[in-house]
């Protein structure tokens, strides 16, 4: 992919802008970055960037949607292959942990977006509601099939699994003894195996 | 406590400033609030506020320390009374859940503070490291006393318990079917009882 010249083809340029925006939002949050700075990191002008994305909000939403679709696709594919929603969550966390800028960006943006007026507030509420509903449904299916003990409340377990994913991501950055991405996914796996006794 | 006049006694005024700053940071994050706005909410001038706290950073740190001390004290008291670190975490989460502005503030500030240059970065790293170390120690004591099964890795379990606390707090604000604070603490309690089989 070309960097630093003004003539990258449209799609390659869009991907470059999305990659630089991920890095920038991960470093400074949505409010801490200007379109100008992202354009400079791509080696293009502010106008050049605005040709691809009409505003910083548009850029943010494109980036979040792209990320969400990639995560969702990996989740569904792993779930279909393994039959296990726990393996599916782990696959997504592993993929994201390999790219700390993305984890940093999501961690910060999700927390910023708890404010109702944040441009990504509705997006994140939609994503969290969908993930929780899907996961609860999968857990209920497992209980019907007898692969998950019936005494667990699928609503609470779905909330707990999502919370573990998010909370461990935060600790990647806030534990000074330096938890590695590998230790983080190891902990997630260990918690899942404690939480999910097989029937 | 007097509000809206310039003559509240020093300590009452400080507490008022801390309460208004909590609300403001919870609504808009550290970067989204000015000293002027917090001063106005207290009914005093910017100079009046800066007489109590020399800068917005000083105000933030005073507020975080006050909060951390209150949480720590409640945690230790409940741990001493009940002998259970799970009850102690739940007591802290319940106290904070009763004040959503505080939970919103901590959720946002912790995520903002993953950036190394954030004024509260070192504070949060210190807090997370201390909480994890203390909790791991308590879990190891329980294993020695036979009140927690020996097969669980206390390092991973400590990480998992902290992650559940943080991740469920985020869902308070990002699930559109409206998880209540009570449901959140109920979920936390259910996850604890799954994670922590007694010996």
Automatic annotation (TrEMBL), chains A, B:
User: Keywords for this entry?
Assistant: DNA-binding, Repressor, Transcription, Transcription regulation
Q: Does the keyword Ribosomal protein apply?
A: no
SUPFAM superfamilies of this UniProt entry? Homeodomain-like, Tetracyclin repressor-like, C-terminal domain
Q: Which residues bind DNA?
A: 34-53
Top-down, what is the taxonomic lineage of the species of origin? Bacteria, Bacillati, Actinomycetota, Actinomycetes, Micrococcales
Naturally occurring in which organism (per UniProt): Naasia aerilata
**Domain HTH tetR-type, residue spans:** 11-71
Task: State the protein's name.
Answer: TetR family transcriptional regulator
InterPro entries hit by this protein: BetI_C (IPR039538), Homeodomain-like_sf (IPR009057), HTH_TetR (IPR001647), Tet_transcr_reg_TetR-rel_C_sf (IPR036271)
* PANTHER family membership: HTH-TYPE TRANSCRIPTIONAL REPRESSOR NEMR, TRANSCRIPTIONAL REGULATORY PROTEIN
Checking Pfam families in the record gives:
TetR_C_6, TetR_N
């Amino acid at each position: 992919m070309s960097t630093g010249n003004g003539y990258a083809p449209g799609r390659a340029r869009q991907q470059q802008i999305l990659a630089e925006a991920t890095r920038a939002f991960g470093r400074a949050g949505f409010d801490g970055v200007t379109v100008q700075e992202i354009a400079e990191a791509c080696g293009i002008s502010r106008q050049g960037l605005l040709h691809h994305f009409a505003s910083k909000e548009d850029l943010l939403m494109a980036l979040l949607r792209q990320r969400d679709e990639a995560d969702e696709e990996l989740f569904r594919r792993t779930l279909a292959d393994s039959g296990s929603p726990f393996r599916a969550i782990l696959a997504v966390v592993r993929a994201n942990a390999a790219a700390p800028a993305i984890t940093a960006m999501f961690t910060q943006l999700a927390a910023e977006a708890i404010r109702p007026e944040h441009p990504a507030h509705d997006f994140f509420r939609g994503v969290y509601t969908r993930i929780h509903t899907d996961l609860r449904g999968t857990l209920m299916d497992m209980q019907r099939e007898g692969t998950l003990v019936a005494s667990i409340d699928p609503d609470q377990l779905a909330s707990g699994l999502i919370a573990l994913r998010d909370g461990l991501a935060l600790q990647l950055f806030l534990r000074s003894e330096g938890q590695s991405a590998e230790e983080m996914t190891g902990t997630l796996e260990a918690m899942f195996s404690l939480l999910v006794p097989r029937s």
